[in-house]
From TrEMBL, chain A:
Subcellular location: Cell membrane
Keyword DNA-binding attributed: no
Organism of origin: Micromonospora haikouensis
ABC transmembrane type-1 domain sequence ranges: 113-327
Main localization, broad class: membrane
Pfam families given in the database record: BPD_transp_1 (PF00528)
CDD domains noted in UniProt: TM_PBP2
Keyword Isomerase: no
Keywords: Cell membrane, Membrane, Transmembrane, Transmembrane helix, Transport
Entry similarity comment: Belongs to the binding-protein-dependent transport system permease family.
Superkingdom of origin: Bacteria
Protein name (Swiss-Prot/TrEMBL): Carbohydrate ABC transporter membrane protein 1, CUT1 family
Residue stretches of biased makeup (Low complexity): 1-18
GO cellular component: plasma membrane
From TrEMBL, chain B:
PROSITE patterns assigned: PROKAR_LIPOPROTEIN, TAT
UniProt protein name: Putative aldouronate transport system substrate-binding protein
Single GO cellular component term: cell envelope
Transmembrane regions listed in the UniProt entry: none
Keyword tRNA processing in annotation: no
InterPro entries for the chain: Bact_solute-bd_prot1, SBP, TAT_signal
Signal sequence bounds: none
Keywords (A to Z) from UniProt: Signal, Transport
Subcellular localization, as worded in the UniProt entry: Cell envelope
Similarity comment text for this entry: Belongs to the bacterial solute-binding protein 1 family.
Length: 343, 553
């Protein structure tokens, strides 16, 4: 069964995987050199093929095969008809677009979509740039030991589960937490941080930043390492200061990676996380904390309306695909390489 | 072409365009309007007569005379531990078949698994067949259960809590497709082959029927009450606080007891108990003029809501309960950070036994039940079994027989060696004996025992060394309040609720929670009720009324 989250995620890496030219290059050179026979190429390339096989098999089994399960979006799917799961697909009643009708007619669904998009937009502005800043900061540290230490410390929270992260925030900033107790001792009225629906979006973004800023910086650090140091030396020799070097060398060097990640993030615009929101839903209420994934959980998974859940997943995937295509096109217009390009 | 829903097609198209999918709507519009059908089950109810026809004949199996005989839904109590135990099962139940894989919910740290757990080894040797249990976190059990049922991949024995089973849509279909029909093995006198299963109360078997067939072995309740409001009697006494006799007194007491500077708040979760104090029904109640009244329509519910919202507003509820789903209230209660919280009565003995080791004076008690001004309190509950144990379909009659014999062994009554081994483990290893012979769990016992064999039982209450007063107090509380138990209107009728009803529960809970936490005013309840009734509530009412009428109630 393909979870509602997977469909969108499949498209992005798959598209990215096909993107780089190497697959095309040998073909071009082969044509010039009189294309070798299939047998000869197999003999030549089999170690490479063998190395790709497991990844391809995983992709097939865990991404492409479950994608077929999306047919239940058009069914009143009952997993218990027939003698086995395949027959359940075949014998469930086909109801056309009934699930989509129910979904699009549900005001709760649109509430969830709106919340999700708001949070995505907010995090694009207030979360997305932070790993870039961190990477630049780390890169400018001279001492390798200090950099290694800071890097480990900021990576670590990425491996914590959301339960742990939320508990940590409650213990620190909650009404019975460290901060509140300190404030009470100082004779102040503690702030309401964990249960305020109005500032919930800031809270979840802060939690995400704490958890994932270090992890997100890895890619940018790699991109920074790829910038030719000669450029900096030449610019310095020409009298460029710190800020000019950053503006004219560092940021342009990072730009392709930034654009690539931005496009991928847009493709995921309708996913902002699940556990983080389900854990804090009671604290701030549905109006603030309902996102698309929690909506699907409560209205489709918990009530076994599998068809409805698949319909919501398809919706997410289609919107994600459209956003990726549009953003990619825009990137091309602006002269960037984007996620992929037609030859 | 299937008929479409009346008057919806234009709306759909508008919405689709709004979503920026204009093209899709234009292309698919005709299809959308003409060729769709509503999804979801309409629900079903099995007649009480059909249920009665497949039940096992009840035959009590008493090994030991109880000190406090139970009555009705109240279990037997034993105040001393027997010196001489008997062998209840003489023939080894297992026939050396393949290992039986099981899955059960468990609320606590996960015990070691097969191969590194001496408790499992001891019982498996006795059984003559290997049981390989998988314990899953009870609070997230529904996720596992749904995925498992959806994938049609179930273990040989699946133990599921009644409240999770109730939530599964089309459970009858699932039962038919995945679980063995036990009717021919257990119906009527056939049950005599498994004497301790035949001794399970008929009231609990009644709930184990789906689609007119017996499909599960019940794990009967040891008390029909759904909730109790526990309080730290030791801390109450120390602070000179007397048990309240009205909601007003409860509120005054909470104000006095709450001291954020010391990290102490009066309450954890309490809303369900407050509703009972105010005399509100759990869901439905018969109206004097006929028909059913939902609790939202009962003024008592509004009063309870108002009262509880006030507790939240004035900061009398622990912030962890307010801030996060699944705050560990037991932990807060043990640490004295909250003085009162609601839980099932099943939480009592374990918590008391565990914590009295750490703090000798620790004393948790259910708060005596009281009513609001002019109203009689009620107690929610029923004889519904706590768990159902299902056998995987298609294992063959011999294997099913082997599994039922294992279950029969697990149901051996108090006073037998089997009961002691299952409940307490091996003497000297998992428990030691107090001076009066009653077992006291050891550290290893607490670590290795996790209800791995609690598939079914005849409920009894037994005095244990670490909770000497518990049995008397527990049975006293039941007896004192059993008259307040609101009768389950649907006892013995198997209900499968309509999809529209299941779908409306969570959004409505969200709205009620908004009111409780002060995000919406209490006066919004009327609006919430209206929305609830319009989008599934009335359908649910009609469904329940019909089920009652069909059974002549």
């Amino acid at each position: 069964m393909s979870g509602p989250g997977t469909a969108g995620a499949v498209d992005a890496p798959a598209a990215a995987g096909q993107a780089p030219p190497p697959t095309r290059k040998p073909r071009g050179t082969g044509r010039r050199r009189h294309r070798a026979s299939l047998g000869a190429r197999l003999r030549r390339d089999w170690p490479l093929l063998a190395m790709t096989a497991p990844a391809a098999a995983l992709l097939l089994v865990f991404h492409y095969l479950p994608t077929l399960g999306n047919v239940i979006a058009f069914q009143d799917y009952n997993p218990f008809v027939g003698d086995d799961p395949v027959e359940a697909f075949l014998y469930s009643e086909w109801i056309g677009f009934g699930n989509f009708e129910a979904l699009f007619a549900d005001p709760l669904f649109w509430d969830a979509v709106r919340n999700t998009l708001t949070i995505t937009a907010f995090q694009l502005v207030f979360f997305f740039p932070l790993p870039i800043l961190l990477a630049i900061l780390l890169n400018s540290l001279v001492s390798g030991r200090v950099r290694g230490f800071v890097q480990s410390v900021v990576y670590l929270p990425h491996f914590f589960s959301w339960v742990l992260v939320v508990t940590f925030f409650v213990q620190m900033l909650g009404g019975a937490g460290l901060l509140a107790q300190e404030m009470r001792e100082a004779g102040m009225q503690p702030w309401n941080i964990m249960t305020n629906p109005d500032t919930f979006i800031v809270l979840v973004t802060a939690e995400s930043v704490w958890k994932d800023i270090g992890w997100g910086a890895i890619v940018f650090l790699a991109a920074l390492a790829a910038i030719d140091p000669n450029l900096y030396e030449a610019a310095a020799a020409d009298g460029a200061g710190r800020w000019r070097r950053m503006w004219h060398i560092t940021l342009p060097g990072l730009r392709p990676v930034i654009v690539l990640l931005l496009i991928m993030r847009l493709g995921d615009a309708l996913s902002v996380g699940f556990e983080q929101f389900i854990l804090q839903r009671e604290a701030v209420g549905r109006d603030a904390a309902e996102v698309l994934d929690t909506f699907v959980y409560y209205q489709a998974i918990a009530t076994q309306q599998w068809g409805l859940g698949a319909a919501a997943g398809l919706f997410k995937a289609v919107v994600g695909l459209i956003l990726i295509l549009a953003a990619n096109k825009l990137a091309h217009r602006l002269g960037e390489q984007g996620v992929y390009s037609k030859s | 072409m299937k008929p479409s829903l009346p008057g919806v097609s234009t709306d759909r198209r508008t919405l689709l365009r709004l979503a920026g999918l204009g093209a899709a709507a234009t292309m698919g519009g005709a299809t959308l309007a003409g060729c769709s059908k509503e999804a979801g089950s309409k629900g079903s109810a099995t007649q009480a007569d059909a249920v009665r026809a497949v039940l096992p004949n009840h035959k009590p199996a008493e090994v030991l005379k109880p000190d406090i005989p139970g009555e009705g839904p109240i279990p037997d109590g034993y105040l001393s531990y027997p010196k001489d135990l008997v062998d209840a099962v003489t023939e080894q139940p297992g026939k050396g078949g393949a290992a039986i894989r099981t899955m059960s919910p468990w609320w606590g740290p996960t015990p070691p698994t097969l191969g590194s757990n001496s408790y499992l080894a001891a019982i498996n040797t006795k059984l003559g067949v290997e049981i390989n249990p998988s314990l899953q976190d009870g609070t997230t059990f529904a996720d596992k259960l749904n995925a498992m049922l959806g994938a049609r991949d179930v273990p040989d024995l699946l133990m599921a809590p009644n409240w999770e089973v109730d939530k599964v849509a089309r459970f009858s279909d699932a039962v038919k497709a995945l679980f063995e029909d036990l009717t021919d093995h257990l119906k009527g006198d056939a049950a005599a082959k498994y004497p301790y299963l035949a001794a399970l109360p008929t009231g609990s078997w009644e709930y184990s029927v789906w689609g007119g067939r017996l499909a599960a072995v019940p794990y009967p309740t040891d008390g029909p009450f759904a909730w109790a409001l526990f309080h730290r009697k030791d801390l109450f006494d120390k602070a000179g606080l007397a048990a309240p006799t009205s909601p007003e007194e409860l509120y005054e007491l909470a104000k006095k007891a709450t001291d954020p500077a010391k990290g102490v708040w009066a309450f954890g979760t309490v809303f369900d108990m407050v509703q009972q104090f105010y005399g509100c029904q759990q869901t439905w109640r018969k109206k004097p003029g006929g028909g059913l009244e939902h609790k939202f329509e009962n003024p008592a519910y509004k009063a309870a809501l108002e009262f509880t919202a006030k507790l939240f507003k004035e900061g009398l509820v622990h912030p962890d309960t307010v801030a996060s789903k699944g705050a560990d209230e037991k932990q807060l209660f043990k640490a004295g950070k909250i003085l009162m919280f609601q839980d099932g009565l099943g939480a009592w003995q374990g918590l008391q036994g565990e914590q009295s080791k750490v703090l000798a004076s620790f004393n948790m008690q259910p708060l005596p039940v009281f009513g609001a001004a002019g109203a009689q309190p009620v107690i929610w509950g029923s004889e519904k079994p706590i768990f159902f144990t299902f056998v995987k379909k298609g294992l063959g009659a011999d294997r099913v027989d082997e599994i039922l014999r294992v279950l029969n062994w697990c149901a051996a009554p108090f006073g037998s060696r089997e009961f002691e081994l299952r409940e307490y483990g091996v003497e000297g290893k998992h428990f030691t004996r107090a001076a009066d012979g009653s077992p006291i769990p050891t550290e290893l016992g607490r670590k290795e025992l996790g209800g791995q064999y609690n598939f079914c039982r005849v409920a009894v209450k037994v005095k244990s060394g670490d909770t000497p007063d518990y049995v008397q107090q527990y049975l006293d509380y039941l007896k004192k309040n059993v008259a307040l138990l609101e009768k389950d209107l649907f006892a013995g009728i198997k209900l499968e609720l309509p999809a529209n009803w299941s779908k409306i529960i969570q959004p409505t809970d969200d709205k009620i929670r908004d009111i409780l936490r002060g995000r919406r005013p209490v006066s919004d309840l009327d609006q919430v009720t209206k929305e609830f009734m319009a989008s599934g509530g009335e359908e649910g009412r009609a469904f329940h009324e019909k089920a009652l009428a069909d059974n002549g109630r």
